[in-house]
Design goal:
454 residues; mainly alpha; two-stranded antiparallel sheet; 74% helix; globular
């Protein structure tokens, strides 16, 4: 059964998922007139503004806190281990195609943010509910109920943090010099992880968003300082590392097939990092106090720019100047172990500093993903079912930290595809409505975009 599940998951999460997310995102990027490029400065300006006053009655968190919570989920081990694997498999050129994929992902995230505000539900108590299931129900109508249900079911399973709990436990025991195969040790670490997550997620979306809005800048800032130290101490080789990204991206030495392979590796890694088109972002942005879909879309689209663009670039440059990737055979490396070797050889105590960053990345992902699953459970089973799911999520971290996970990981990967299918289908079907809600630049001076007190 494990072999069959793995085969199905690898098949669905290979080229079908790639074509769905990257191909669909490219359609949205071109159809929007390259909006992520045209309006990036405007989106960055909006980060410095406080939520509009008329947005106070809707939602529970600000747009910026929604973005921080989304980034907390997407900035994870993939930004470190995934980049290392991309460099081994595709060479430096894969990083350029990660940037291209981030641009495409920004178009998908823009559409998700716009639709999250335009078609969210408001509960009797005034709280909001967002996500693909509500967008599908409210925008596409009742005949699409099966697609909304598909996302909700897949979301409960696909957002379980199997790999985060397992890899964080593995790395913690390895750093402590303990036996990583010892069941009692793994359970102990799992209990600590579970208890930490419970302290945050049981406080609801406001506590998750508050913690994320503090944790994300701190952990990205620490990571930036570490990478800056590596680059400053390796300035002589930095220009060559940057040049290798562009030369490798378009190299035809090994033929067109190799060039396409490099592009696919970079794009696929970015796709798995930023979750653009998967639908989880619209769940979080649906909680925003913003009442202007276009504004929320602009802020939402910064997510891929931060994780697949900024953080992944930091990792790539640090590893390129500190590790000789030509000496590493593809298929024989663990991404996180390689990154820790690179940071450990260039920064005093670098392995421990990177471990601290990795732990923050992994924990922040768990905080946000618990909320995603909670909202999917609430859609299917109501508030009581959502509370039960949250406890199940917390307890599952102990299980995933302690047991072999081949079949479980394959199962979650498979449901990842079943989250992306209804989401991207919905974004493509509603792209004209998004265009109608997309304001020209002159409209950004309207009251909805003005800075107000939070």
């Amino acid at each position: 059964m494990t072999d069959q599940l793995t085969l199905v998951a690898d098949t669905l999460c290979g080229y079908p998922l790639f074509l769905l997310l990257i191909g669909g995102g490219l359609i949205l990027f071109i159809g929007s007139g390259a909006l992520p490029l045209r309006r990036l400065p405007e989106a960055l300006r909006l980060l410095r503004e406080r939520p509009a006053a008329e947005g106070r009655a809707a939602g529970q968190i600000s747009s910026v806190k929604a973005l921080a919570s989304v980034v907390a989920a997407t900035v994870g081990m993939g930004n470190i281990a995934g980049v290392a694997i991309a460099l081994v498999m595709g060479g430096p050129g894969a990083i350029f195609w990660m940037w291209v994929s981030a641009l495409v992902g920004m178009a998908s995230k823009y559409h998700e943010g716009v639709l999250a505000i335009a078609y969210r539900d408001t509960a009797p108590d005034g709280s909001t509910r967002g996500g693909p299931m509500y967008i599908i129900r409210n925008a596409l109508g009742p005949r699409w109920w099966w697609m909304a249900g598909c996302f909700a079911v897949a979301g409960m399973i696909g957002t379980l943090c199997i790999m985060n709990a397992n890899q964080l436990t593995e790395a913690t025991l390895a750093m402590a010099g303990a036996d990583t195969a010892d069941l009692a040790s793994r359970i102990a670490v799992g209990l600590v992880i579970s208890a930490t997550v419970a302290l945050v997620v049981l406080g609801g979306i406001r506590r998750i968003a508050t913690v994320a809005s503090v944790m994300v800048p701190v952990m990205v800032g620490l990571y930036f300082i570490m990478v800056t130290y590596i680059l400053v101490t390796h300035l002589s080789v930095l220009p060559g590392a940057v040049a290798s990204i562009f030369s490798g991206a378009f190299s035809l030495k090994a033929g067109w097939g190799a060039l396409i392979g490099v592009a696919l590796i970079g794009a696929r890694r970015a796709m798995l990092v930023n979750d653009a088109g998967v639908g989880t972002a619209s769940i979080m942005h649906g909680e925003s106090r913003s009442t202007t879909p276009d504004r929320e879309g602009l802020i939402a689209m910064l997510g891929p720019a931060i994780d697949s663009g900024f953080v992944c670039t930091l990792t790539a440059l640090a590893l390129l100047v500190s590790i000789d990737f030509t000496a590493i055979p593809s298929g024989s490396v663990q991404g996180l172990a390689l990154a820790m070797d690179g940071f450990g050889s260039t920064i005093p105590g670098g392995r421990y500093l990177l471990m601290a960053v990795v732990a923050c990345f992994a924990m922040s992902s768990m905080f946000s993903y618990s909320f995603y699953g909670n909202r999917c459970a609430a859609y299917l089973f109501g508030p009581r079912g959502a509370r039960i799911y949250t406890w199940f999520f917390i307890l599952s971290l102990v299980i995933f930290a302690a047991v072999p996970l081949t079949a479980a990981v394959a199962l979650c990967d498979m449901f990842y595809f079943f989250m992306a299918f209804p989401t991207m289908t919905t974004l493509l079907l509603l792209r004209r409505r998004v265009a109608a809600m997309t304001f020209p630049l002159s409209r950004t001076d309207s009251p909805a975009f003005q800075a107000e007190s939070e």
